[in-house]
Each structure stands twice: as C-alpha cells, then as structure tokens.
Amino acid sequence: MSKFGRKGKKKNPEISTASLPDIIFMLLFFFMVVTVMREDDPKVKISKPNATETEKLEKKSLVDYINVGPPVNKILGTEPLIQLDDSFADLSDIRQWIEDNRERRDEAEKPAITTSLKVDKDTRMGIVTDIKQELREANALKINYSVNKGSAIDN
Amino acid sequence: MARRGLQEINAGSMADIAFLLLIFFLVTTTMDQDIGILRQLPPPVPDDMEKPPEVKQRNVYEVLVNSNDQLLVEGQRMDIRDLKAGAIEFYTNPSQSPDLPQLTRVSRTVVQDNLNKLRQALSEDPENKEIKDKIETWEDKLIAIELIGDYSELPSSALISLQNDRGTSYDMYISVQNELSAGVNELRNTLSEEKFGVPYSALNTSDDNDKPKIKAIRAVYPQRISEAEPKDLGTN
C-alpha cells in the first residue's frame, strides 16, 4: 500500500538548465565570429547578379561601397539612384566622397583602397559607366563588382 | 544562520542575458560575404594625349554588347555560352588562324638577352620609369621560364576589348566579364595543374612559395580585358 502511495507523490526530477547559458553563449560566439557589422541602411533595393569567377575582398576596412539600384521608398520612383554611405547622392558627389574616404586612411593603405560597386542587376549600364568614369577621374582605379556566387549564364 | 553556508547565485537568468546578446548580434550584423569580380580601371586619359598606335586587327578580340543584350564578337553574333570558348581560342590560337594573334615562343636566351640590354639602358638612365617597368615584366617572364619552361606568348598588344552600350543591362555586362575571366582562369588552372599539380585558384597569394608560381602563370596567360572608352552604340 505504502509502496503505491509513495510513487504517486514522487515528482519528476527537474531538467537542469545550468548548461543552457553555455549553449546560448556558444551560439552567440558563433554569430559574432562569422558575421560582420551592418554598415549602412540600404536605401536602394539591390539584387546582385550571379558570377562564378569571383574573388573575396580581403580587407573590409579598405573597401568603400557605392550602391546603385531602384529606391526602396516607392515615392522616389523606380529609376536607379546612387547611395553613398547613408544617403542618396549625385554623380558629381562621387569625386568628393572618394577624396574624403582617402583622407581618412593611412598613407600606407591608400593604394589598397577598393571601391565596391553594388549594383542591382536590372540596372542599365549607362549609370554604371558614368560612375566608372567618375572613379577614373578621381583616380580610384581598383574596383570590384559585387556579385553572388552562381552561374552567370542563367542571369 | 552560520550553518546555512553560502547561498548559490541563481544562474537561471544568465540564459536570458545571453539570449538578449545573441538577438542583438543577429539583428545588427550581416552574414553576406563580400565577393565580386575585381577589375582595374584605366587611368584617366589626358586631353592632349597623342593617339595610341594602331593595334593589328588580329590582336584584338572585339566584344560588343548592345542594348538588347546581344553579343557581337569579332563581327559575328554569338551566344554568351560560347564566349568562354571564344576567349580561350583567342588566347591559344590552336589552329594558327591568321585572324587570331600570332603566338611567339619565349626561350631563356631571348629573355636573358633582353634583360641584359634593359639593365644596361637603366644604368645609363637610372630614373627612367618605362625601362623599370619593362625590366619588371621581363623578370616575370624569366620566373615563368624557370618554373614552366619555354612557352608561347601572346603579342604584347593583344587584348580583349569589351564595349557595351548605355542600355546594356548590368546583368549581361557581369555575365560577359565573368565568361571572359572564366576563359582565362580555365587556361591558368590547366597550366597550373599540369606544372604544379594544383589549380591556379588554389595558389595562395600570401604564400611565399606560391608567389613565383602565380607570377609565372600570369606571365603566360595575362588577363587583358580592356574596356573601350564609353560610347553610344545606338539604341533600338
């Protein structure tokens, strides 16, 4: 009799949650290592084209981004716009922007500065060509066309 | 009271704190790796520059892309799928075609001769940058010969000339750039595989052992994709 009574009263042992923080910390460290800080709010919508012959950009701190694509905010229309850092810009602003970015860096690093063009794949080349001409004038000759890995032929 | 001992600190909220941090990092960071096609733009052309010498027709692989994303390669319509093979053909000219560049054999004696001559010239005019650049390219060739042996070389004026219309889509432009690079990279990989046992893409630019190999392969198959000054090819 007493045997059964005792059984009914016995509680399930609690699962120890002491290791839960460890697991979460592990996840946290994983994310801290594999991700990078988001630099700027995208104001233009960019879906990158695909390519296979890609190279990895070595030094993130030496890369400046020019974003080109249709604005996220529909009120601004659908024509592709240029975004430098956090704001929209004109073609004529690029030269000054390059100059400012150059000023920020050490003399030794200047030749390694790369300008990465993040351009939406439906953009026409006209605006890209104009940007490239501006970059040439500003002597920012190392450029990178940002792409996703994938077959270029199915673009 | 004294018998109670030290009270344990409740670690239950540790998980919450860690979660909070985790979520913060999830939100503020991005995963996307930055990969892309690296290119070097030509320096700006000064207005008073004299016209460059005419390059022989056979040494230029002309790729035009119009606003309908159609390709015209060496005067012929071409599908993007064939562009890679076309680039490889241009680089190697397997059939000795008179329309494609004539490859010349590079041997050690020629390279050594040229280097000696250039060094002599440099000693007379030590500040001449042009000579210095030339010496550099010939030194690369010497490295190539030491590592690879005699090889056939493209004429120094041979290049792939890419020209696009303002109406070409960026997508197509990247595809063309990609296919042209793919052609060169395939040649480089094959050569590297044959000579060093590893594909070119596996060579490490920061490894001192690999650096001369990379230089050698680049000397044999230089990437010469040039973009013409932009102009309107007409839209329709």
Automatic annotation (TrEMBL), chain A:
Subcellular location: Cell membrane
One example of a Gene Ontology biological process annotation: protein transport
Record keyword DNA-binding present: no
Membrane topology label: Single-pass membrane protein; Single-pass type II membrane protein
One term under GO cellular component: plasma membrane
Transmembrane segments: 20-37
GO molecular function: transmembrane transporter activity
Keywords: Cell membrane, Membrane, Protein transport, Transmembrane, Transmembrane helix, Transport
Family: Belongs to the ExbD/TolR family.
Protein name: Biopolymer transporter ExbD
Automatic annotation (TrEMBL), chain B:
Top-level taxon: Bacteria
Primary location class: membrane
Keyword flag ATP-binding: no
Cell compartment(s), UniProt: Cell membrane
PANTHER family named among the record's database cross-references: BIOPOLYMER TRANSPORT PROTEIN EXBD-RELATED, EXBD MEMBRANE COMPONENT OF PMF-DRIVEN MACROMOLECULE IMPORT SYSTEM
Record family assignment: Belongs to the ExbD/TolR family.
Protein's name according to its UniProt entry: Biopolymer transporter ExbD
Organism listed in the record: Cryomorpha ignava
